[in-house]
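ugh ok fine here u go
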Amino acid sequence: MQPSTEVARVIGAVRTATSLDHVAKADGRRCAAKFLHTARVVNTMVEQLNSFVSEATRVAREVCTEGKLGGQAVVTGVSGTWKDLTESVNSMAAT
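structure:
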């Protein structure tokens, strides 16, 4: 598998919410240097999305299933819309 195909596979899976896999080694070797930066960016994005999904799911379970208010999602390293969304989850869980 070519490095660009592998990056496209992961981005496509995130887009359709079918998987939150990392970019794997292509052809059994590390991605070429020109793709290494892109692979790292995509893998960081996937890690942050995994963290957000896990925390939002945990807080939703606490509130909806256990009736426990005040739980807070802790998602490190996110900014912008993801930070805003995390703060919204926390706000809803607190009320």
